[in-house]
Amino acid sequence: MTRYITEQDMKELCHELAVALFDKYDEPIPPFELHEPGKLKAILANPMQTFGGSELYPTLNEKATILYYGLIKGHAFGNGNKRVATATLLVFLFINHYWMDISKSDLEKRAINTAESDPADMKNVINDLLHWIDVHRIDLPSA
After folding, report:
1. Collapsing DSSP states into helix, strand and coil, what is residue 133?
2. Helix, strand, coil tally for the chain in percent (to 5)
3. How many domains does the chain have?
4. Within 10 A of 127 (CB to CB), how many other CB atoms are there?
């Protein structure tokens, strides 16, 4: 069963991880309390969407992809959306017993490319992100 990211997870895990790993002196990530609650709530609900009783994003990778894309393109934070999205992707995978075997620079490049993508090209960007996660996702060892 998939564990989803909650607003509390965002505050206590994802945002804190983004600040710890990716904060920059010249481009600080604002405090969590300054986010746009309506936008964040909608983005966090995206992976759980259904239509006609069927999940729109049935696989874990599809859920991770739409969450990551939504956080980057949805701008729920005044600054640091790419960094928060990257941390959230890693937390989402981790709480579902997976990780990404990928370098920090590759994570950064993917976030920038996603942010700079044309919204009209969303379907192709989503497919590329899905493939990227498929290629780099690894199982975490059992405890």
Report:
1. helix
2. 65, 10, 25
3. 1
4. 11
**Model confidence over 39-84: pLDDT tens digits?**
999 999 999 999 999 999 999 999 999 999 999 999 999 999 999 9
Q: 1 in a domain, yes or no?
A: no
Residue-range definition of the domain harbouring residue 108: 7-139
What gap in Å lies between CA 74 and CA 68, rounded to an integer? 10
pLDDT digits (tens, 9 = 90+) for 96-110: 999 999 999 999 999
Does residue 75 contact residue 85 with C-beta atoms inside 8 Å? no
19 token code pair: 């600040």
DSSP characters over 66-104: HHHHHHHHH--SSS-HHHHHHHHHHHHHHHTTEEE---H
Q: What does the alpha-carbon distance between residue 140 and residue 97 come to, in Å, rounded to a whole number?
A: 5
Question: Does residue 2 fall inside a structural domain?
Answer: no
Distance between the two ends of the chain, CA-based, in angstroms? 18
